[in-house]
Design brief:
The chain is an alpha/beta fold and 561 residues long. The termini are far apart. α7 packs antiparallel against α11, α11 packs across α12 and α15 packs across α18. The strands form five sheets. It has an eight-stranded mixed sheet, sandwiched between helices. Strands 3-2-1-4-5 form a five-stranded mixed sheet. It has a five-stranded mixed sheet with strand order 8-7-6-11-12, sandwiched between helices. It has three domains: 155 residues, 2-Layer Sandwich (Nucleotidyltransferase, domain 5); 149 residues, Nucleotidyltransferase, domain 5, CATH 3.30.420.40; 193 residues, Alpha-Beta Complex (DHBP synthase), CATH 3.90.870.
């Protein structure tokens, strides 16, 4: 049974492939195209997934798509008609993509990859829910999905049992905690569906002085976590912008921030405020879901589920015995959810396949790496594993910034040790150094720690594994300032030898030298680019940034000969 899952035409296009229910491969199209959040048909990702599964397109039993395009078009059309004649320019802007692409998936599949078989469509939030529950370790659980908007739904909840999920309740557009967060993201001068994590990073630098005004004017928050937006403040129903400029200026007493402008104390306060409102909504939703379903475990997905600060606070509420957050919780992960919805709900397969790891992308062999090194005239030394780990750990302990490109690429937005940059977390200056010299990004942006799983409790307030970097928790030890955010927190990644033996070995080598089993871990890319996929991408990061050395497979690569 071969099922190809797809998400595309909105943002974060991706493909995955299931082989008898096993997730064999998954990748976002941006990694191949080098266009961040690439939304186009994921032709390269599909080709990779077929290669990795060792099947041809003729062997695919079904293609599962993560949305119902006709239902989404109904919402788009009804929204424009409801506010007409406002929004006519925006309507004209979006129509070509519908008429040329979004209605024609079977035709595009046949034209691009020669597929002429069964196409299955699943509601957006069903795809999110399936991606969370079917990858979780639970036999039964509550499911909560929260994002901007799918077709009509902006949040939903229900129950998963065995090989079936049932979503019973939903919140509908335009009321959306995800769209509220994105609107404030735009007002603060950042990109929607791209920079929300920057607002989360800004929040601890400010006080939530505007949270009350937001809850009074922008939205009302109900006891069950649902919200109602005051639409006089918002333009996203009909305009090219997310917010009404005049109303937001009146509410917050200042003009919208332009990209590149200085970030002031009031900007930080607004970020802190929207973060607090979001956390309140997420926790209220979770409390309601716990009460209504009676389930002891929770599965989370949707773009809002990538808010690791809210996730950490939800975890500390102890409403549930355990929480599983789908690591690729946004639209890319919807491809996986659609594939599993097809497998269990249409094909009626009963066997479950919980997620083991996220290393589902391409890997490159020594020959491919050596060819790139020769082509780019990179000075490199080939070492056996143990010597490589010791050499890399020694350089990190000596203050060097080390790129790391080994094994299969991670699926989802987080670098989890196969396409990473590592540095010494003990150095107070390391955060500012990497932000300014390597990543070329804002100074307020924090970095995550990777820690040996059995030592995590010595450094962080956590008693559970966190292999996918989805929960922000308090830091307990002042020995790692470079990965400690201004509020004393960190988005922790726990590493065990079964999950990622190479990263565990590097942590062990660093611990032997320094006594600290923690590394600063950030993604192998520079600002504005997707995470490096190929050896050539990684070499480009080495050449174009302040990174000192690069581990490429078993090669230790230097900037100059």
């Amino acid at each position: 049974m071969i099922i190809l899952g797809l998400s595309c035409f909105y943002h974060d296009a991706a493909a995955c492939i299931l082989k008898d229910g096993e997730l064999i491969a998954a990748c976002q199209e941006e990694r191949f195209s080098r266009i961040k959040h690439d939304w186009r048909f994921p032709e390269s990702s599909i080709a990779y997934c077929l290669r990795e599964a060792n099947v041809s397109i003729d062997e695919v039993d079904a293609v599962a798509f993560y949305e119902k395009p006709l239902l989404k078009f109904e919402r788009v059309l009804e929204t424009f008609l409801a506010v007409a004649p406002r929004g006519i320019r925006a309507f004209v802007d979006v129509m070509p993509s519908w008429l040329q692409q979004k209605f024609w998936l079977p035709h595009i599949l046949k034209k691009k990859i020669g597929y002429d078989g069964t196409c299955l469509y699943f509601p957006h939030h069903v795809s999110h829910a399936a991606s969370a529950y079917f990858l979780s370790p639970f036999d039964a659980a509550a499911i909560l999905t929260i994002d901007g908007v799918g077709e009509w739904a902006t949040a939903s909840y229900g129950i998963g049992r065995g090989s079936k999920i049932d979503l019973t309740h939903e919140m509908l557009f335009p009321n959306s905690i995800g769209l509220l967060y994105s609107t404030v993201t735009a007002y603060l001068g950042f990109s929607v569906n791209n920079d929300e994590y920057k607002v989360m990073g800004m929040a601890p630098y400010g006080k939530p002085d505007h949270a009350g005004a937001m809850l009074k004017h922008l939205c009302s928050l109900k006891q069950d976590g649902s919200i109602q937006l005051n639409m006089k403040y918002f333009n996203f129903q009909y305009g090219r912008t997310m917010y009404d400029r005049r109303q937001f200026q009146r509410l917050f007493g200042m003009l919208p921030r332009k990209r590149g402008e200085e970030i002031t104390a009031q900007h930080y306060a607004i970020a802190a405020s929207i973060q607090q409102v979001t956390e309140a909504a997420v926790i209220a939703m979770a409390k309601h879901v716990r009460l209504q379903t009676g389930m002891k475990n929770l599965c989370l997905a949707g773009g809002v589920a990538l808010n690791s600060v809210a996730n950490g606070k939800l975890l500390r509420e102890r409403l549930f015995d355990d929480i599983f957050v789908q690591p690729a919780a946004g639209d890319a992960g919807g491809a996986v959810g659609a594939a599993y919805a097809a497998y269990h709900h249409v094909m009626n397969r009963k066997d479950r396949h919980p997620l083991r790891n996220l290393y589902l992308g391409p890997a490159y062999n020594d020959g491919e790496i050596q060819a790139v090194l020769e082509r780019h005239e990179v000075h490199a030394l080939k070492l056996e594993d143990e010597k490589l780990f010791e050499a890399a750990a020694a350089k990190i302990a000596d203050g060097k910034i080390v790129g790391w490109h080994r094994g299969r690429m991670e699926f989802g937005p987080r670098a989890l040790g196969n396409r990473s940059i590592f540095a010494d977390p003990r150095r107070p200056d390391m955060k500012d150094l990497i932000n300014s010299k390597v990543k070329f990004r804002e100074s307020f942006r924090p970095f995550a720690p990777a820690v040996k799983a059995e030592k995590a409790g010595h450094y962080f307030q956590t008693d559970r594994p966190s292999p996918f970097m989805l929960f922000t928790v308090p830091v307990l030890n002042d020995a790692i300032p470079a990965v400690t955010h201004v509020d004393g927190s960190a988005r922790v990644q726990t590493v065990d030898s079964g999950q990622n033996p190479d990263l565990y070995a590097l942590l062990t080598a660093f611990e032997r030298i320094t006594g600290v089993p923690v590394l600063l871990n950030t993604s192998l890319n520079v600002r504005g680019e997707p995470i490096a996929l190929t050896p050539a991408d990684a070499v480009g990061c080495l050449a174009g940034s302040g990174m000192d050395v690069l581990v490429l497979g078993n090669y230790l690569c230097y900037k100059e000969r």
